[in-house]
Structures are given as C-alpha cells and as structure tokens.
Amino acid sequence: MILVTGARGNVGREVVNLLLSKGEEVVAVTRHPATATLPDGVHVVVGDPSHPQTLAPLLRGVKTIFISPRALGDSTAGAATAELLKLVAEQGAQRVVALSAVTVEYGGGYQHFSDAFRAVEEAAKASRLQWTILRCTDFASNAMVHAAAFRN
Length: 152
Known about the structure:
Elements: E1 2-4, H1 10-21, E2 26-30, E3 43-46, E4 64-67, H2 77-90, E5 95-101, H3 103-106, H4 111-126, E6 130-136, H5 147-151
C-alpha cells in the first residue's frame, strides 16, 4: 500500500493516477475528503499531514509514503515529515519518496519553499527508510499564477 500526501494537488493527483494505472493500492490523505474528487479505486482518508498523529491510525500496512512538502506546511514541513516518517516506519514502511525542487541545490525561487524542500529532504535521509528525492524544476501548472497578467 502506498500513502500519498498532497493527493489533491497538481503533483499528488498525478502520482495517484500513475500508481492506480500500475495496479497499486493507494491511500490518499486529505483534510477535505468530501471534495477530494479522486479516481475510483483510491482509498481516501481524512487526516492532516502537518499533524502526523492524525494519521497514526491509518499507517498500518503502508509500505511506501509519498511526501508532498506543501501538504505538510512550509514552516513545519521538516518536523512534520520527521514525525510522520517515524510513525510510518514503526508500522513497517520501507520507503519514502519526497517531492523536492532544484532550488535546494541551485537557489532561486522563494526562499521559504526552498527551506521547506530542504527540511523534507533532510528528514527523509535521516529516517532510515529507503529514500528517493525528486528534485523537480518547473511545472506547467506553476504558470497559472501568471494567468491573470497574461490575459491583461
């Protein structure tokens, strides 16, 4: 079973879709399950990744966890990730996949995002789980921030 944080976001939703297409059992964490509109076959659970104890009852059977730092809160991402990974490891998880960004290494962008990504990376590496860090650059969906200016 794979637990996905940030499952309603631009990246998390695609992670869920890809995992389902490969036949994986997916648990999607959301604060608002009534409006999640995730695909059939996903086990949608209510929880707040920025407060990992809310997820503790859901972690049994999770083998891999996908961490979206924005789901854990920019200012608390590192501490929340460390706590969540400790909890999931205690239940037998083996791997963490963490979404990050190239700004961790090369700078640029908003500092608070870079700091959150760095903190999540450090927590993943310290977790003793097998880890994969996805250092992304830009997403087309990020351009939507400029949509109003482009229309004007």
